[in-house]
Write a structure and sequence with these properties.
The chain is mainly β. The chain has one domain. The two termini are 28 Å apart. This is Secreted protein. It comes from Apodospora peruviana.
Length: 215
């Protein structure tokens, strides 16, 4: 009998640590010359392991007649996550998906940094993604698909802190995702008007891992 009771107690402990995605909510604000108000959309996967940002108005230009300021654009997206206090999340990186049609001699670059306000930690050692090559310069107006991951090495990942035991009913933290989009001219006279294919949405999917707190 004691063995059965012990087993049930252990089982109840496991069940108490079951992650409930429905208990996680998200509030989003953003700013920057790469994402004017009303120009991005966001969605949260049902299992709460992926946040997707859709960029609709990222405009860049490079060339002899283009202003230097148009060669790069920035967007800072601020995610306030509210979640059960017995859990914490870890930022694992991003996946990018979009269509590019680049002029010859031009390449594009994507930079991202992540910051968690509760621990005042920033990940700057994030792999840079380059969009370059004949695939994109010969694609025509329809463009070619760019789909790539920029994952953070395990030793560089940051995570929210565990709240004090008994905190009720939810705990919250803010994840700042700062993106920079840039164009580079790889030969004299190269020029490009626009970033991704006009009329398409450029998406970034941020990957999260949820870990139970050990009190």
């Amino acid at each position: 009998m004691l063995g059965i009771i012990s087993s049930l107690l252990l089982l109840s402990g496991v069940l108490a640590q079951t992650f409930d995605p429905s208990a996680v909510s998200l509030n989003v604000t953003y700013s920057g010359n790469g994402c004017p108000q009303g120009s991005i959309s966001t969605s949260f996967s049902p299992d709460r392991t992926a946040i997707t940002i859709g960029f609709d108005s990222v405009y860049l230009s490079i060339g002899p007649s283009s202003a230097a300021a148009l060669r790069s654009r920035n967007c800072a997206v601020h995610f306030q996550l509210s979640y059960p206090p017995a859990w914490r999340f870890i930022v694992a990186g991003s996946r990018w998906h979009g269509y590019f049609a680049l002029d010859g001699g031009v390449s594009a670059t994507l930079y991202t940094t992540y910051e968690l306000r509760s621990v005042d930690l920033r990940v700057i050692n994030v792999p840079t993604l380059n969009v370059t090559g004949d695939k994109y310069t010969t694609a025509g107006s329809e463009g070619a698909l760019f789909d790539a991951e920029s994952l953070i090495a395990a030793g560089d990942q940051i995570g929210s802190i565990c709240s004090s035991k008994g905190t009720s009913p939810t705990y919250s933290d803010v994840l700042d995702v700062r993106d920079r989009f840039a164009l580079q001219a790889n030969r004299a006279g190269a020029q490009q008007d626009g970033f991704t294919v006009e009329g398409t949405t450029f998406a970034q999917q941020i990957k999260l891992k949820w870990v139970a707190c050990n009190y």
